[in-house]
Amino acid sequence: MIIVGRRVLGLVAGICLAASAPAAAQTNTGRISGTVADSSGGVLPGVSVTATNEGTGLTRTSTTDGQGGYVFVDLPVGTYTVKTELSGFKGSVKTGYTLNADGRVTVDFKLEVGSVSESVQVTAAGETVNTTSGEVARVVDREQVQNLALNGRNYMQLATLIPGSPVLDTNALDIMTGLGINTSVNGSRTNASL
Predict the structure, then answer these.
(1) Which residues fall within 8 angstroms of residue 104, CB to CB, at 6 or more apart?
(2) At 23, is the pLDDT very low, low, confident or very high (cuts 50, 70, 90)?
(3) pTM for this one?
(4) 161-173 pLDDT tens trace
(5) Disulfide engineering: 124 pairs with which of 21, 53, 96, 166, CB 3.0-4.6 Å?
């Protein structure tokens, strides 16, 4: 009886711990990383790198490691400006990098020899490409959801907006009732996608 009670207590404790951990898909932060090199491609350790959220003014500062790399983790979603400074080199500022939930943005720099008071400013345009992992992700914002012609306002139809996730069942009644949403994301099994 005591052994069974301990097993049940252990099982309940395990379930409570698992339930209290935040789900990976429910994050509202992302990461910005990159490398800093000189104009000939040699990495630059010890560079001061600053990431600033343009909407809130939140600023984080880091220093590049021995391989010239830096990383900012747990940054709130938003649009960021990233700047670098190192004595003997022109400063560099890159703006307009949009960080989405669980997003990974790479911002690499090539610094030119000069004084810190001189700077090179670059403005990012278009979507950033995730070069740090092979995952395919897409954020569907509130405006897109409101402007979509969803049949019966079925949220599962939003999955078809993600590249690589076609609707495999075109039966309108199944789609309207939500009973037949049959979607495969990037070739995975239909019961493992959503």
Answers:
(1) 30, 31, 33, 130, 132, 133
(2) very low
(3) 0.60
(4) 677 776 666 665 6
(5) 96
